[in-house]
Amino acid sequence: MAMSNEELTKELFTPADISHAASEKLSSEVVSAWKDAFRRLFRNKGAMISLVILIIIIGMSIIGPMTSKYSADDQSLIRSNLPPKVTALSWLPFLNGKENGVDMYQERGVKQDFWFGTDTLGRDQWTRTWDGTRISLLIALIAALADMFIGVVYGGISGYFGGAIDNVMQRIVEIISGIPYLVWVILLILILQPGLLTITIAILATNWIAMSRIVRGEMLKFKNQEFVLASRTLGAGNGRIIFRHLIPNSLGMIIVNTMFSVPNAIFFEAFLSFIGLGIRDPQASLGSLLSSAYTVLQLHPYQTLYPGLVISLLLICFNILGDGLRDAFDPKLRR
Amino acid sequence: MGRYVLKRIGYMFATLYVVITLTFLSMKLLPGTPFKNANRLSPVQLNQLKHFYGLDQPIPVQYVKYMWNFIHGDMGGSFQFGMQPVSQLLMAKFPVSLDLGFEAIIVGTLLGILLGIVAGLHRGKALDWGTMAVSIFGISIPSFIFAGILQYLFGVQVRWFPVAGWSGFASHVLPVISLAVYVLALVARFMRSEMVEVMSQDYIVTAEAKGLSTSAVVFKHAVRNALIPVITILGPLTAMIITGSLVVEEIFGIPGIGAQFVDSVVTNDYPMIMGTTELYAALFIITMLIVDILYGIIDPRIRLSEGGQS
Fold first, then answer.
1. CA A120, A126, A131: angle at the middle one, nearest 5?
2. Which part of the chain is the ABC transmembrane type-1 domain (chain B) (predicted)?
3. Which end of chain A, N or C, is less surrounded by CB atoms within 10 Å?
């Protein structure tokens, strides 16, 4: 109503001042793809919680065994099958050192506490659990390195050069991947003796296949693009193009896939140790701890609890972190 | 299509041949003898035993012999079961493992598809979050831990189901669940992202625009298309079920191939190990073949775009 009375005259308007500098200014700060990815990752609560838990587990695996005066194979039947006890927290029902209402520590005359209890041979579960965690983490590291070095280089060469080289390399991969992972690993373990070295070789031999395929795909995608042509025109050699241009471009995919192959490798080590083909006594691994704890599961269930908890946490956290990284590096995939 | 299938079958036999040869060679590289009390036997006795089992012949001769017998369905005799034919032992135990594997795959896939559809339709809501949390747990926690938890809770504490064994419905429940959890988690995850993808397609908008009811849109248009790629994870699933069955059979004392295999490894029962390895490889390779062919039939674009290449 009020509007219709007033005329909109030209004098009411003043021209905005034209400043070229202002129109060129970006409203927000410049963010590189990497920074953007990490910002997305840090905003992902699940991934951050997982990262913190992983850091705690890694820290415990380093300092854990040092805090106990017993090494992983100190045996004594006097203190066998003791339930967990933490004196400061003994009001908690599962940390009071009692089994079926009887304080096992008093009965056996054991003075000090075993935070995670002891196993059938009286070995400190605290030390053994963190020792086993070390093995799992070591395997994780080896798997990641195998992915990074063998997988990336193999896939890179195969995809970049193409033609006959690619053909031969892909046939080899096809044969390797046509046979189940389990069969390869078991054959390798039978020839060599079960142990950490054998598992390492098995992982080095088979773990990189998926990565090599992904890197090959990335190479095929990028190698005919203009920036490669430009680089070649400027006189760059094949090695420089692969390692300075193509691989940095696919680094996001490489990191994400490494994160997914790590939990697989951890699981596989635990699985092999569980069925007796991996780490064997007296060395501790989360898998072998679980398998010996299962034999007394009905009597002393707490022996299963902590190794099971640690390996489950490790795998869950690595998987969630992997998911977070994938979402961060490739928002298109986030659904 | 015919050429494509033939080519795939050709590849399958080539891979199988490689597997058999590799298994044979690695068995020959094994340390130790297969005879139980080898150190208590005199060299003469040992030689007699080796001669009896044909282990004293040159390796190429053994290889040709093994292949010849293999083609005729004879995989040798098991050392730990008094030379009972391996093929016979495998055939006796395989159905049990197959039973377990199939039950787990069926239960896991059906529930997984259902959960995936529900999560995909309620994207970003509590239902979706819940399903994805279950799925992350299912994928991460190893089957031997699930098996242990279930065995302790429902077998030892509440005693609803038998702790071990393989007779009757009740004894199937726990092992099948512990294997199916992984299948469920993987399928649910995959199905969810496929549903989300499909629901944003133009043909769904069209279907909605022409006034179809929600259930018709979801079941006639969305689910059907979302199901196609789910077939591709059948391959990795089979491999996972094989791995899982080894430990689950061991934990629940199921008389299948998995538990048998672990025993064979410990006792150096070469023919049995070879037989089981070959069986696993064949199972895996055949599943991959079926998946490829199924995929070609359901989605003709795959075949055309690949131009018969693998």
1. 100
2. 94-295
3. N
CA distance B26 to chain A (A): 6
pLDDT of residue B310: 34
pLDDT tens for residues A154-173? 888 888 887 888 888 887 88
Query: In chain A, which residues have their Cβ closer than 8 Å to the Cβ of B197?
Result: 335
Check whether residue B154 and residue B206 sit in a common domain: yes
Distance CA A332, CA A201 (A): 36
Q: Which residues in chain A have Cβ-Cβ distances shorter than 8 Å to B251? A: 294
Q: What is the predicted pLDDT for the residue at A1?
A: 46
Query: Residues near A252 by Cβ (< 8 Å), separated by ≥ 6?
Result: A33, A37, A329, A330
Provide the token pair at B287: 């599943």
Under 8 Å CB pairs connecting chains A and B tally to 113
Highest mean pLDDT among A247-261, B106-120, B203-217, B233-247: B106-120
**To the nearest 5 percent, what fractions of chain B are helix, strand and coil?**
80, 0, 20
Q: Given B46, B76, B106, which residue is the final one in a domain?
A: B76
Does residue B118 share a domain with residue B61? Answer: no
Q: What is residue A66's predicted lDDT score, i.e. its pLDDT?
A: 77
Task: Tell if the CB–CB gap between A308 and B284 is shorter than 8 Å.
Answer: no
- Centre a 10 Å sphere on the Cβ of residue A67 and count the other Cβ atoms it contains: 11
Domains and CATH numbers, chain A: 34-66+124-333 (1.10.3720.10)
Taking contacts as CB-CB distances below 8 angstroms, the residues of chain A near B196 are 335
- Domains in chain B: how many in total? 2
Q: pTM (2 decimals)?
A: 0.81
Together in a domain, B98 and B237: yes
Among B237, B256, B275, the domain-final residue is: B256
- Name the 3-class secondary structure at A102: strand
Based on the fold, state whether residues B71 and B102 are members of the same structural domain.
no
| B202 and B245 together in one domain | yes
Check residue B163 and give its pLDDT: 76
Task: Find the CB nearest A191 among B19, B30, B242.
Answer: B30
Name the residue range of residue B66's domain. Answer: 2-76
Quick one: how far is CA A127 from the chain centroid? 23
Is the separation of the CB atoms in B27 and B270 below 8 Å? Answer: yes
- pLDDT by residue (tens digit) across A40-51? 888 888 888 889
